[in-house]
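Appendix B. Chain record.
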Amino acid sequence: MGTISSALLRKVTAELYERSLKKIPEDTKLALARARSVETNQTAGHTLDNMIASARAAEEENHFVCSDSGIPVYFMKVGTQVNFDGPVKQAITDGFSDLVASIQPPMLAHVTNPLTLERGYAGKDMPITTFEMIDDADYVEITCSPKALGSGRWAALEIFTFPTLDVIERYVMDVVLKAGPQHCPPVVIGVGIGGTFDYAAKLAKQAMLRQIGTQNPDPILAQMESRLYTAVNATGFGPMGTGGDATAMAVHVDYASGHGFTPVAVCFNCWINRRRSARIYPSGHVEYFE
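Structure tokens predicted for this chain:
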């Protein structure tokens, strides 16, 4: 049995948040470049050029890609062979506090109490962290995906009774059309189907984090992703609402078995596609990846 220290968790979770704010993932850079190479709308093309240049400048100058740093959201996968030498959730909370105190440029206060609308850097259940177990693993895998206002505002969920694939896809497009360009496209769209109310939302969030360009192993879902990707980009909203061909960089769908009632959840990641991951081993070795 290995042991992972609270101090290392505190350090790594803070680093993941900072890295996700200052560097867009490599697959996202490639997706933006591909979108630019086929864009037929001149204004949209200029917008994509500005996005690519902004991302490059932020990385080179160690600045935020966007001033909306969002709120900290972590997905934790914990190996069943791992032991911890101290608190886990408190280590993540302390890591966030460390980052707030040290990061340059400073972060804006986005953590909001929904009852009083008071804003700050701390609050109930903050950072938002979900945990999942991995059988027989001796490591902890952490993904940080900060959620900002643009993409976070337009996520949606509805529960259907024995829906057909057509009904599901029509609902996804209804959510897309309602959002319009307000989620800062081109976006990555995550769709979760089935399970329960809470689990469908989790499926959508995790699907959203999948690498752009990866093939869905389920042929039904692969075909659904292709149809939705084509339909979303046919809306013409384009990069930041300037028109054109690139409203989505990817549509990723996952499902879980459930009852006759079928929740369908839809969420978005803006063009920055913030996500950063690390795997921590008992030896203290840390692997960072996107």
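Further analysis of this model is presented in Appendix C.
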